[in-house]
């Protein structure tokens, strides 16, 4: 296991990232990172270390162990499907894990591991979500509807294989759910059985979606 400075230098070399880009994505000051790189310090606080590791697509443990980069840049996030007309999602099964239509810079507030993004097509969710924006979610469970999904805006799939972006609420019977439209003029769906539901964790408007070549 390396000290934090050694791990940071190795990760910068492996990823071909600039110190300034890591500072921007992690939220840790460039001057603080420069001191680390120059050897004026060899460690930082746990919170900043975790943010730096996330910006480099790793956990702290992986960073200190010198874990290699994956084939697709770990500081990016795959946009694996669309949110289209009627707020219906084209499911992501057509893409290999970690792959998608294109990749974007992963926001520094979240880890790229375990998160999925979908792109908004059309104006079915206006004015809340704009066309060209991106929704990011994380499936806590592969099957079922977790407690944290109730009352939240979620990406969810029903038992007929259709997926939606709706507010999820309990239905009139156990195991059934009401799916409420984000747009007041949209259709609400009542007493639907769901395979899974995952709360939307972040929305990136079009001007904040930064595509990355992979």
Question: What's the arrangement of secondary structure elements?
Answer:
Layout: H1 4-15, H2 19-26, H3 30-37, H4 46-55, H5 60-64, E1 76-83, E2 88-89, E3 102-105, E4 115-120, E5 134-138, E6 153-158, E7 163-170, E8 177-180, E9 189-192, E10 194-204, E11 211-212
Helix pairs in contact: 2-4
How does this structure look, described?
By secondary structure, the chain is an alpha+beta fold. The protein contains five helices and eleven strands; from the N terminus they run αααααβββββββββββ. The chain has helices spanning 4-15, 19-26, 30-37, 46-55, 60-64, and strands at 76-83, 88-89, 102-105, 115-120, 134-138, 153-158, 163-170, 177-180, 189-192, 194-204, 211-212. Strands 1, 2, 3, 4, 5, 6, 7, 8, 9, 10 and 11 form an eleven-stranded mixed sheet that branches. Helix 2 (19-26) packs across helix 4. The chain is elongated.
């Amino acid at each position: 296991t390396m000290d934090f400075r050694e791990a940071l230098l190795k990760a910068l070399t492996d990823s071909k990232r600039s110190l300034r880009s890591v500072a921007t994505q992690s939220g840790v000051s460039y001057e603080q990172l420069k001191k680390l790189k120059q050897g004026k310090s060899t460690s930082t606080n746990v919170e900043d270390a975790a943010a730096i590791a996330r910006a480099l697509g790793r956990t702290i443990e992986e960073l200190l162990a010198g874990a290699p980069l994956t084939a697709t840049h770990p500081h990016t996030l795959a946009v694996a499907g669309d949110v289209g007309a009627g707020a219906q999602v084209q499911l992501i099964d057509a893409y290999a894990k970690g792959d998608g239509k294109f990749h974007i810079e992963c926001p520094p507030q979240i880890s790229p591991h375990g998160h999925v993004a979908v792109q908004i097509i059309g104006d079915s969710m206006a004015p809340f979500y704009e066309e060209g924006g991106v929704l990011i979610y994380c499936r806590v469970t592969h099957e079922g509807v977790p407690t944290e999904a109730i009352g939240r805006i979620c990406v969810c799939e029903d038992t007929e294989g259709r997926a939606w972006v709706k507010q999820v609420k309990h239905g009139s019977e156990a195991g059934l759910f009401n799916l409420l439209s984000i747009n007041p003029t949209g259709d609400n769906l009542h007493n639907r059985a769901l395979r899974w539901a995952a709360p939307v964790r972040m929305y990136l408007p079009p001007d904040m979606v930064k595509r990355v070549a992979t």
